[in-house]
Structure formats: structure tokens, C-alpha cells
Amino acid sequence: MAQETLLRRITNRIRQSLELEDIIRSTTAEVRSLLGTDRVMIYKFHDDGSGQVIAESIYENRLPSLLGLNFPADDIPPHARELFIKSRVRSVVNVESREIGQSPARDLNTGEIPCEEILYRPVDPCHVEYLTAMGVKSSVVAPIIYQDQLWGLLASHHSQARDVAEYELEAMQMVVEQLSVAIAQSNLLTQTRAKAEREAIINRIATLLHSLPTIVLQPALEATVAAFNGVGGRLCIRHNAFDFQHSIFKSLTECLIPGSNCFQLYVCGQQPIIPNPNIYPLLEQYSVWQEHYKSGQYSIWAIPDIYQDANLRIVQLVFQPTKIRSILMIPLHYRQELVGYLSIFRNEIDTETLWAGKFDPDNRQLYPRLSFDLWRESKKSQSQKWTDEEIELAEEISKHFASAIQQHELYQQVQNFNENLENQVHKRTLEMQRTAEQQQAVFGVINKIRESLDIDTIFKTTTKEVCQLIKSDRVSVYKFSADWGGEFVGDFEATSPNWFNESKLGINTIWNDTYLQDTQGGRYRHNETFAVDDIYKMGFTPCHVDNLEQFQIHAFVLAPIFIRKKLWGLLCAYQHTGPRQWKTSEINFISQIASQLGIAIQQAELLVKTQQQAEELTQTLNALQNTQTQLIQTEKMSSLGQLVAGVAHEINNPVNFISGNLTHINEYAKDLLSMLDIYQQKYPKPCEEILERAEEFDLEFIIEDLPKSLSSMKIGVDRIRQIVLSLRNFSRLDEAEMKEVNIHEGIDSTLLILQHRLKTRSESAGIQIIKKYGDLPLVECYAGQLNQVLMNVLSNAIDALEIYRKYPAEDPKTGKITISTTVEVMNDNVKSAVIHISDNGPGMPEAIKDRIFDPFFTTKPVGKGTGLGLSISYQIVVDKHGGILKCDSQPDVGTEFWIEIPIKHIVISRRGEAFGK
Fold this sequence. Notes:
Pfam families: GAF (PF01590), HATPase_c (PF02518), PHY (PF00360). GO terms for molecular function: ATP binding; phosphorelay sensor kinase activity. This is histidine kinase. Keywords: ATP-binding, Coiled coil, Kinase, Nucleotide-binding, Phosphoprotein, Transferase, Two-component regulatory system. The structure is a single chain. By secondary structure, the protein is an alpha+beta fold. It contains 22 helices and 29 strands. The strands form seven sheets. It has an eight-stranded antiparallel β-sheet with strand order 3-2-1-8-7-4-5-6, with helices on both faces. It is flat. Residues 908-917 have low confidence and may be disordered.
């Protein structure tokens, strides 16, 4: 119970707090209270193998405090650490008996918990002296394992000898397992806080860099130095480095040449002291930095101690008068171009470590220490290492600085234009305004592009907006084909009186460029934007120039459009009126729009693909439902047809036998009656026995009634044969193919089958059938399927009239079904046969009438209908015959079905449309 209570309290403490310091402090107190020992402490290992007591609980000061003291790595031999890690061994030492016991927590191979019995052996004398000097007579140690590494130890010390019970080992084992959980939670909390702090630092610096109308870098530099706990820092960037003659920026190396003034320096805090005079007045001008980054890989250079690197000798000289010892050199690059250096400085520090007793690092473990009194180890002029987290933070900050510097350079460029070209102030001012508008317009165009996911709308919006913003004659979207040819899929042409588009360059225009086809996209595969101010000054081949002249193109800018990492097409800006000098801002603007256009196209294609998949799924589901419907109804009608045909066949054989023999029997009867008449004439006076026999079975009545009976039998047999013929006509199993049939026969056959439902019954009136047949020719159709439609429609009409069966025949509400046929003309002047089947039943409301042809929709009670009959009928009439099936119904008036099919079969075709190239 004490173990359970302890475990519960420690678990609750872990759940209530994520602060590891609070957890371990309370844990030591709880464990010491449970075990009743003089001291319980938690010892944590450092990366170098040494360790420190980070928590302890002491009973009435019976043992000296070790809290905060460090112990060297050699105090715990490597073999002991290996046992702690691999076997999770708990160590028990009794100083008086000079024995040490070890008890593994579990078998790592089998996972089973071994017997808790502690196996003792003699303890090393050095270990005994070590504990004796500490004032300990009994010791129990359990390893704290975190992520399969030895994180620390849970140790219990007692100033008197004592036996260790099994429950104590179990309790300590439970505690160290819970501590592992607490350590994991604490580390997660620490990582989360570090991440939040890192993001806050980045946001704070980014805000300083990007929130001001005019870029001010000094506050951002100061905030960066503070973020790294530095004592100083420097920001050296290009300044006034724009070459007007070539319209490019000078490289940073060129700007840092002594005597150059195309750089700007910001400093914060302590700085290196450069001797005067010196040919290199700036730290950044020293060749050591250019040599380090000459490969073009601009990674961060973390220098923990400048005096430990022989390549930094020239740098050591300028830092010797200072206490700066560590440098974090952060290259600032934009699109693989170095634009500046950001450097952070840290001073050397003096360190002091509190050790438990003085030890000799050069003679460790040769003899045990005799004292654990506090010993302070002081070290002077120690360097501060740069952590991986700090390097990652520096990488993020460098991106924001590089972006801000790029904006700063654009701003400098505009300023230089105003300062150096006074004679073109007005023109340059307009261009500066246009540049600013275009930069702002990028976001406007992006927002408009993203307002729609329709690909055509995206192309129209992009080409129109870009064309109007850069004032180009035409902007088009070109899409590559599989062979790296392609066509224009988007186009906007600016209205201009200065040129006429006789070549009809526009959407669906195919343009197969041999350079693009041979190189599979050429320079554009490497995300290069190509600008041509004048096609006649680029050295193009005559064939290429002729092709451009064909479309009246004098200047153009082409920017690649990528979807993920695949080159999809080009965003093209054309000038038809003549040559044009494209500005860098315009080229960058087109490049940025092309990049965003690729994202928009990808989203639109994903939407189209998703819609297609949804539509295909819907079509598949509908087809499956229709197939199920057809299978069910086909099986039903097939079974009914087979049954009807079988019954008709079975009835037909005996009826034919009876019908054939009736003729002979009739002849035989006539002959016998004739012979009897002759006997009566020749022997008018028969004997007494004959007279008695004739009187007994009434010979005169038989002579008179026998011909009548035979005639009645002949009529009955003919009626049976007519019924069998009607059954066979309805089933038409031998007429699965389309052929010419008499529609009226099909109607009559269906009515004959349904005759039992139409007759008058003792308890109710019958249903009256009114036929209004027109002069119909033979109709080419699937007879069996058409009979199925007639059966479904007539059965539904009879079902609807069942409510009137309770009225007498002379009542006005007696159920009536009217069947009329006519010849009419369908669309395209095709003659058709029309069958009207109407009843005077209760009718249907509009909502039900609109759904009667839907699969599985029925108004009948459960078990009375499947909702498949009219759906199948609709498919037979409309899909199979190309006809019309519609319904008109009014409540309390009745329902009428209109069945119309072509008299001659027509082939139903659906035309598709293709986009012309």
C-alpha cells in the first residue's frame, strides 16, 4: 500500500506539473519518507560523463548536503555504467559487511522480471573507502533511463548499516520509470518553449526589418545581437552598388575593395580594434572571409574560439585588445548572390564549477578521495560554443535580412536614379511609381488569380492584369505538349491603333520551337527568365527572326511556369509596336506572376481532377443502380416469360390433341347417329329389350344433345387455344430481336393476361376497358420489352383504380381505363406510334409525378411494389427505342401515360465536340 500511495503521489505530481525541478524535488522527499533512510538524491549525468546532484532530501542533517555539487566521470567506472544501461541493474552496498548486491530490473532478452532476491559479492575496497569518506554505511542506487541512455541515478544513503527489502527495490524501480516519463514531458515542454521563443525572436526581428516605410537596419542588428546574448555585432552590406551602364549590381567582393564606397556598415556593442593605418579598414575586407566562401556555399561559419584556428591569425590581431573570443559569421545571400555579412561577437568567460571534494584529473581513481567538501574549480578566458539551435536561428534570421537588404537595394537604386539623373527626374519618378505599383500589384494579381479555380478564368485574369500593369501589347500563356512543342491557351491583346494583328496570334495557336523541342525546354528548365529588348540585336538565326516577324514580335519576356518541379509552360509578354527596353522590375514582376500562376494551375487541375473523379463515381453509382434495376426486372420478366411460355406450351399440347380428336369424334358421332337412324327406319319395331334400354338412357335426348355438346367442346377448345396464343404473344421469347409487330395484338394480349383483375366480382364492380384503336401500321420494335412496358403501365392503372372497386358498375365512379392509339410525327419528321393509356383514378400531386420514373421510388405500401417498373419502362422506351414516355396526372381527375416510339427504328447517336487547334 505504501508503494501504491507513493506511486500515486508521484504520478499525480507529474500530471499536475511539467516542471522537472518541482517533480524531482518532491520525488526525493517521497522516496526518502517511504524508505526511511537518511538521504535520497537524484544525480544527473553531463555530456562529458561527469554529473551533478540536482535534488536531495536529508533527514535531520544526519548526512552532509551534496546538492549542486559535481562529481567527476571516473567516480562511476565504465563497467558500472554499462550494467546500468544494458541490464538496468540496481546496486545495493553494505559497507559494514563489505558486500555489494546487484538486482536487474528485467531480462532484456525475454522481457521477464527475474527474482528480486539480491545476490551479494565482496565489494571493491576502493568503493568502501569512497562511501566511508562520504559517511554512508548503506547505499541503494537505481538507474534512470531515458531513450535507452543513462540519464541519471536515484540513490538512497543511510548512515547506519541496514538490510534492503524487496519492496524497496520495487518502489525505487517504479519511481525511476515514472521519472523517465517526467523527463520526456519536461524535454517536450522545453523544446516547445524554445521553439516559441525562437519564433518570437524571428517575428520581432522580421517586424523591425519589414514594418518601416524606409528600411532601418540598426534596430534589427541590435535585436539580433541581443537574441544571441552577444556583446557586439556588425552588418556590412552592399550600398549604392547599382551599375547604371550595365543595369546590374556589383558583387559584394567588388564593393569591399579598399577605396570603394559602395558598401554600408552598421555596428553594435563591442568591436574589433583595427590598427591605423591599415590597407583594410574593415574587418569584412580581410581575405579570410572571401577564401572561406569562394566555393559559393554560403553556410553559417560558427567560430567557437578564434585563437584555436590557424587560418584566423590576421583576425586574432584585431581582437586581441578585446575580450571577444567567439564569432558567428552569417553570410547574407539572395538567390545565391552574396549581398552582405552579419557577424555576432561573444566575449570569453570565466567559469566556476563546484566539485564534491578536490580531485587530481591526472591521477584519477588511483586512490579514493578522503573528503567531499566543497571545492571550487575556476577557469579563466573560456570560449562560448555556438549551439545547433543558435545556428538554425541564425539561418532563419539571415533570410529576413537578405530579403530586407534586397528591398534596401531596390530603394537605393531608386534613390540613385533621383540623385544622378536630374535631367530625367520626371521620367524616373514615373518609373519609380510604376515599379512600386507593380510590386503592390503582384499581390493584387495573385488575389484575383486565386478568386477562381476555373482554369480559363485564371488565364483570362492573369493575361489581362499583367498586360495592363506593364502596359504590354500582348500577354499570353503558352503550354508545352508532350514533345515540347505547344500552343497558346491564354491570351489578352491590348487595343492599339499602332499595329494590326494580321497573324491572328491568340488562343489555340500552335507554336513548335525547334530549340525548345531539341533541348526539352531549354533555359526555362533551369527557371531562367528570358528578356529580349530587340529581336534584331540578339543574334538570332534568320529562321528564328522570320518566325518572330510572322507574328509581328519585336520584343518579349518569357518566364517559366512550373507545377511542382515540372516545367509546364511559359508566361509571355510581347511588344508588337517596336523594340522595348524591359526593366528589371517588370521582368521580376512577370517572373513572380509566373510562379504564382503555376500554383494556381496546379490547384485548378486538382479541382478538375477531383470533380472528374466525383462525376465518374456518381456515374458509376448510377450505372450500378441501373444495372441492378435492369438485372432485377430482367430476371423477373424473364422468369415470368419463361413461366408463361412454359404454361402455354404445356396447355397447347393437350389442347391440340383434344382439338384434333374432336373433329374425328364429331364425324364418328354423325356416322353413328346416321346408322342409328337407318336402323330405326329399317326396323321400326325393335324388340322389348332395345326399347327398355333406349328408354333407360333417353335415346332421343342423346341424339339431340350429342351434337350440341360436341359443338360446345369445340368452342371451349378454340377459346383455350386463343388464350394460349395470347400468352405466347405476350411472352414473345422467340422475338428478342427488333422486328415489325402489331401493337394492338400486344395490347390485347396484355389485357387478356390481366383479365382476372378486370372482371366483376361478387363484392365489387369490374374495371371497364375502352379501346380507341387507330389505324396503326406494323411497328419495328422489341416486342417482348414493349409488352413489358404495357404490362407495367396497365398494372399501375389497375392498382390506382382498386379504390373504386367497391362501387357498383352503374355508378359514375366505376373504374375506367381508356386505351387509344394514333400515328403522329416526332422531331426530324419521323413517324411514330403513340399509345395513350388513361384512367379515372385518384391521380397524383406534382411532387410525386416528378419522381415516378426514378429507380426504387414507389407510392405503394411496403411489400406491394419495388419502384422498378416505371424506371425500367422509361429505359425501354427512351433508351432502347429512342421514344418518349411521359405522364400527366391531376389529383381526383386521373392519370394518363403517353408512350411514343418511332414506327421505323432509328440509330441513336451522340455527337461530341473537339477543340480545334
